[in-house]
Amino acid sequence: MDRTAGSESTQAVHDVATGVGVTSDHAGEQIDGFHLVIDALKLNGIDNIYGVPGIPITDLGRLAQAAGMRVISFRHEQHAGNAAAIAGFLTKKPGICLTVSAPGFLNGLTALANATTNCFPMILISGSSEREIVDLQQGDYEEMDQLAIAKPLCKAAFRVLHAADIGIAVARAIRAAVSGRPGGVYLDLPAKLFSQVMDAEAGAKSLVKVIDAAPAQLPAPSAITRALDVLKGAKRPLIVLGKGAAYAQADEEVRNLVERSGIPYVPMSMAKGLLPDTHPQSAGAARSLVLKEADVVLLVGARLNWLLSHGKGKTWGAPGSKKFIQIDIEPKEMDSNVEIVAPVVGDIGSCVTALLDGMGQNWQAPPTAWTDAIRTKKEENLAKMASKLKKNSAPMDFHGALGALRTIIKERPDAILVNEGANTLDLARGIIDMYQPRKRLDVGTWGIMGIGMGFAVAAAVETGKPVLAVEGDSAFGFSGMEVETICRYDLPVCIVVFNNNGIYRGTDTDPTGRDPGTTVFVKDSRYDKMMEAFGGVGVHVTTPDELSQAVNAAMDSGKPTLINAVIDPAAGTESGNIGSLNPTSTVVRKKIA
Questions:
Q1: Please, are residues 197 and 29 in contact by the beta-carbon 8 Å criterion?
Q2: 233 Cβ partners below 8 Å, 6+ apart?
Q3: Could you give the domains of the chain?
Q4: Strand 323-328 with 296-300, pairing
Q5: CA-CA distance, 413 to 411, in Å (whole number)?
Q6: 392 vs 36: CA distance, rounded Å
Q7: Nearest 5°: phi and psi at 187?
Q8: What is the tens place of the pLDDT at every residue in 518-555?
Q9: Which end of the chain has the least Cβ crowding within 10 Å, N or C?
Q10: 586: how many CB neighbours lie within 10 A of its CB?
């Protein structure tokens, strides 16, 4: 490690102003590893970095900021990584997370693995100890073979040992992150690399501007014909839109496919808003019916993983009752759980366009018996929900509170909704309608908690739009300290914490009477005081009307705000809608006399 990093930091920043280490057209000038990394990123249109400063990357952050990049410093690397990951989803450019070595790298690694699982393009850049010491295991400061640890958890991993290779390494990392199925990439930069110096002209020539990083992948004509033949034979067709369709930003093509085909559709949570949830063909409010009764299902950027019950079981009706058509850029995704009778391999935009071209002008809409049955079920379910959403009780239940937020998003469709929790997530997914694409960000494929504040920060930074983060009190606890980050950068983020005093419910007890129940938090906690501590606005509310007023005021002001929304401690259910994944003990212990 570079033990002089701290003492050199002031000089390094001073050098930006004096020209030392900065790329120049003047012969004889030199450039160092710090500036080559920054120049390589900027050359490829990457202007934002999310990270946590420390040895040996502190000066890299300082110099990037001095060079005009925006550097957002977090309190924990996992949240910086989550921010980088969702920045990649929103922009289709790899989000950059910058961490220190060993523990900092490991903290960022969780976000990197989650980004890869969710197909978010992200690059984790970490400083590291020197190879000659690490390989002999001689006990260097924060010694760890980070490259070996990262490899199984991301799409690609690279280490750079020479300054002249920085340009090509950054280019390879960008291409790996965004091409094909997007995902996470690790870039290992040992401390000595930053202080390496080379001729500035040669350094400039070593940089690589990536051309066509994510080239279109056209589907085979035979695959399109096969898919259309299957669709033509359907009596009860259904389209399922996944977050891959949202990431593709082929919004017009997807809308045209849905509307021209006349086929009802169900959006997965992060695909909500590709078409408004109020669209007449939306079958979200009749999800159980359509998944069970459909005879042909067209998957557009959606995977048949646990979120879709693996395409089988009672959710999908009788075995063999339906045929699946799947559009995905990854051939290995086909037949992952059930037979795909019509695989269509390629990028979403190209595949959907090809389907539209093949449909012609005489495409027959689905039978009215099918669409009428869906409409009837939707109306029935929405009527049942309506009275619950209007309840104005104190303390609130989840439906009453989410009903208030539902109206706010309807009135502010441009706002970005970040959502995590158990009941808070599961119920919000069905209650809050979305009207524009990529406006709903949530826990994704792994269903992990703790993404909230990182996603909220990046959404505000990357889009400039107001952000409403709706958090369960448990989920908020994973990243709550980042409210200081939100205040420090004065971001237009309004956080609503649904506080029911615990995980799922705040009513569990310890049978021994010794400790609180394992799922119980401090009763009547005031999360709003956390935001006030850092100069933001804190509000305490107990009714849906108060909640609505507070959120509207926060969104109007654009000031960092946290609203502590008191929810009935008994209102929640175990694990929300995924309680079936939580094994239940069947053992009954009896006292022995």
A1: no
A2: 296
A3: 5-206 (3.40.50.970), 221-375 (3.40.50.1220), 390-577 (3.40.50.970)
A4: parallel
A5: 6
A6: 58
A7: -125, 115
A8: 999 999 999 999 999 999 999 999 999 999 999 999 99
A9: C
A10: 5
Handedness of CA 35, 37, 43, 47 (dihedral sign): negative
Q: Give which of 407, 421, 470, 418 is closest to 440, Cα–Cα.
A: 418
Give the residue ranges of DSSP H helices in 360-490.
368-389, 398-411, 423-431, 452-463, 473-479, 483-488
Residue type, 67: A
What pLDDT, on the 0 to 100 scale, is given for residue 135?
84
CA 159 vs CA 162, 185, 191, 442: distances in Å? 9, 11, 12, 32
Our measurement of the distance from residue 22's CA atom to the centroid of its chain's CA atoms, rounded to an integer in Å, reads 35
Q: Cβ distance 441 to 270 under 8 Å?
A: yes
Can you tell me the mean pLDDT for 77-82?
98
Helix/strand/coil for 443: coil
Q: Write down the pLDDT at residue 26.
A: 47
How far is residue 333's CA from residue 510's CA, in Å, rounded to a whole number?
Answer: 45
What is the SS3 string spanning 101-138?
Answer: CCHHHHHHHHHHHHHHHHCCCEEEEEEECCHHHHCCCC
pLDDT band at 359 (very low <50, low <70, confident <90, very high): very high
CB 412 within 8 A of CB 494: no
Query: What distance in Å separates the CA atoms of residue 198 and residue 339, rounded to the nearest whole number?
Result: 56
Q: Which of 126, 109, 145 is nearest to 52 (CA)?
A: 126
Average pLDDT, the chain: 93
Q: How many residues does the chain have?
A: 593
End-to-end Cα, the chain, rounded Å: 64
When pLDDT is cut at 50, 70 and 90, the band that residue 146 belongs to is: very high
Number of H helices, E strands in the chain: 23, 19
Q: What is the mean pLDDT of residues 273-302?
A: 98
Neighbours of 236 (CB within 10 A): 21
Nearest residue to 325 via CA among 302, 299, 303: 299
Q: Buried b vs exposed e over 518-529: b needs ≥16 C-beta within 10 Å?
A: ebbbeeebebbe
Residue 1: is its pLDDT beyond 50?
Answer: no
Lowest mean pLDDT among 10-14, 30-34, 392-396: 10-14
- What pLDDT score does 586 carry? 60
Using CA atoms, how far residue 397 sits from 62, 180, 326, 527, 571, in Å, is: 47, 43, 39, 18, 6
**Main-chain dihedrals φ then ψ at residue 68, nearest 5 degrees:** 100, -5
Asked if residues 111 and 81 have their Cβ atoms less than 8 Å apart, the reply is yes
pLDDT tens digits for range 225-258:
999 999 999 999 999 999 999 999 999 999 999 9
Check if the beta carbon of residue 398 is closer than 8 Å to that of residue 571: yes
Which residues lie below 8 Å from residue 242, measured CB to CB, with a gap of 6+? Answer: 268, 270, 271, 299, 300, 301, 302, 303
pLDDT of residue 9: 41
